[in-house]
Design brief:
With about 375 residues, the chain is an alpha/beta fold. It is about 35% helix and about 15% strand. It has a 6-stranded parallel β-sheet with strand order 2-1-3-5-7-14, with helices on one face.
């Protein structure tokens, strides 16, 4: 399928198709949407290298789509990590729109090392590399980066310094605080695991500290930062160098959190994950009757949990945009000044933090 064939199906000129696929302002929005739907239906995507030449060369033969590499390091991530699955879906969708195909390379594969992966990518002429979030971290990934344009998603890989796509953790905390204040909550508590503090570079704590700075001393609640004991995380392959001093699998101790909330008479708890809610309820905490609950990662939840949607599909899409932009400019190798793109998240209203006047507090 080429652009002229798509134009015949749509009943318009091929130049109109070209403009519609770029949402050109000269065309009505309805026309753009109609042609884009036809392009999706007929599996049409422009080739990123030859698309600019199509109007000048009437009979360009179709070339295979170039590949981009998605590096993963999470056991059974498609089933066990819905967040990563959504990131990957966003990457696949955007890559296809730009005329690329996405190939996954897992560092957990047998005998996979950084030198071997570098050789595979080089042999296949894959220059664009996206490093997906890892389960363990922070880690160092030693590819031969001089051959590749690399982008990391999240903060699990801290070395070497790559361009990065990340949620705006600081803004997300401020957003959660604004929404809770709007709902009428005053005594707002924050509980984080040490691993999350490291991964977010303490952005959550910094924003929370800014909020507490303006409160009277008697209304301030110290941040709860502790975790249940667990086994240390060790590097699974020689391609990874993990900080084994942090237990990235550890979770908050629900009994300790419940006791701490009652001690400080908190109205609402801000936590870094949705799964912690069930553990807190098992520990005897009545949510939202006794205390309300907000998740800072509410992208995947099986009930109406209040919190922040990190929008992982958009993160994946942005990573593709960033790496392809560097490929088009022939910018391979480690950057002198890494760029960090922080994506805006959104508030998701739910049943665990409702308007204060509607909350029935237990005596």
């Amino acid at each position: 399928m080429n652009i002229r064939e798509l134009a015949r199906i749509a009943g318009v000129a091929h130049t109109t198709v070209s403009r519609a696929l770029r949402n050109h302002p000269s065309l009505p929005r309805e026309t753009c949407i109609r042609i884009q739907k036809l392009a999706t239906k007929h599996d049409y995507a422009p080739h990123p290298v030859v698309s600019q030449l199509m109007t000048q060369l009437p009979r360009v033969r179709q070339l295979p789509r170039p590949a981009l590499a998605a590096i993963t390091c999470w056991p059974d991530w498609r089933r066990r990590s819905p967040f990563n699955s959504l990131i990957y879906q966003g990457m696949e969708r955007r890559a296809a729109q730009l005329g690329y195909r996405l190939e996954e390379f897992s560092l957990l594969d047998e005998d996979m090392t950084a030198p071997r992966l570098s050789s595979i990518l080089y042999a296949r002429r894959i220059e664009g590399v996206i490093v997906c979030p890892f389960k363990q971290g922070p880690v160092r990934l030693d590819l031969k980066w001089e051959y590749f344009a690399g982008v990391a998603i999240g903060h699990s890989v801290i070395s070497p310094p790559l361009h990065r796509i990340s949620p705006s953790y600081y803004e997300n905390m401020l957003l959660a605080l604004r929404e809770l204040k709007r709902l009428g909550y005053r005594r707002i508590a924050l509980a984080l695991t040490p691993a999350i503090r490291v991964r977010t570079d303490d952005a959550y704590v910094a924003a929370y500290g800014l909020y507490e700075r303006d409160l009277p001393a008697r209304e301030r609640i110290p941040v709860f930062c502790s975790a249940q004991a667990g086994s240390e995380v060790k590097p699974r392959r020689r391609s990874l160098h993990a900080d084994a001093s942090l237990d990235m699998h550890a979770s908050l101790d629900p009994a300790a959190v419940a006791s701490w909330l009652r001690q400080h008479r908190a109205d609402v708890l801000i936590c870094n994950s949705s799964p912690a809610l069930a553990a807190l309820r098992r520990a005897g905490l009545q949510i939202p009757g006794e205390v309300a609950y907000v998740s800072l990662d509410n992208t995947i939840s099986r009930e109406e949990i209040s919190g922040i949607d990190l929008m992982p599909e958009q993160m994946g899409s942005a990573a593709i945009d960033m790496v392809t932009a560097h490929l088009h400019r022939r910018e391979c190798g480690l950057p002198d000044t890494p760029k960090i793109m922080s994506l805006q998240s959104c508030w998701r209203a739910g049943a665990t933090a409702i308007a204060r006047e509607l909350t029935v507090r237990e005596p």
